[in-house]
Design a protein that fits this description.
The chain is mainly alpha-helical. Helix content is 54%, strand content 0%.
Length: 190
């Protein structure tokens, strides 16, 4: 009976934590993310899994780790349910905003279809050698202005009018120079 009660308590705790996190995630998700949310096909889920690296995901998103822990499948489920639409990245090796912005042929073709960029990247590895690296660090190194994938319109070469960059040479959130978090480095001056 004690084991059953313990199991039941643990089950309720997990359900509560996931539901609280889910509500917070949906509330925090941008209007663009909510507008693009859809059910993924089995093929899309399987392909996205090839790009997902759980330990990198937890390092990039400690808020997810704090609520959901480190179980790979739980984290992947979060990514395909919420993270992809919130533009969270599956690993440090692939940033969808950088990939979309730096490949005009693709953003003309796919517009704001975020899943299409992931699918293309994962299924066209043979041509990735001539494409630019899809990382925030490479974009910063090459002084690129990066836009949200949601700022692209199918058939247009440039982002939609009024789009605000998500990364520039002077503004690069989550890109740490010399491995140092700028927020932590600036605390000494507060």
């Amino acid at each position: 009976m004690k084991k059953f009660t313990k199991f039941l308590s643990l089950t309720f705790a997990v359900i509560f934590a996931v539901s609280v996190f889910t509500v917070k995630s949906e509330a925090a998700m941008s209007a663009e993310g909510q507008a693009h949310m859809r059910e993924l096909t089995a093929e899309e889920v399987q392909t996205l899994y090839t790009l997902f690296v759980a330990d990198e995901y937890t390092k990039m998103y400690p808020d997810v780790k704090e609520v959901l822990g480190t179980d790979e499948m739980t984290l992947f489920n979060h990514f395909i349910t919420f993270g992809i639409w919130e533009q969270r990245q599956p690993s440090v090796a692939f940033n969808v905003d950088v990939y979309a912005t730096r490949n005009p042929d693709l953003h003309i073709q796919f517009g704001d279809d975020i899943v299409a960029y992931y699918m293309y990247f994962a299924t066209h590895q043979n041509e990735q050698s001539w494409r630019t690296k899809p990382t925030k660090y490479d974009a910063l190194w090459n002084n690129c202005i990066i836009y949200s994938v949601y700022d692209f319109v199918e058939g247009q070469e440039k982002p939609r009018e009024g789009a605000v960059p998500v990364q520039t040479g002077n503004y690069h959130p989550d890109v740490f120079i010399n491995g140092e978090d700028p927020h932590e480095a600036n605390k000494q001056f507060e």
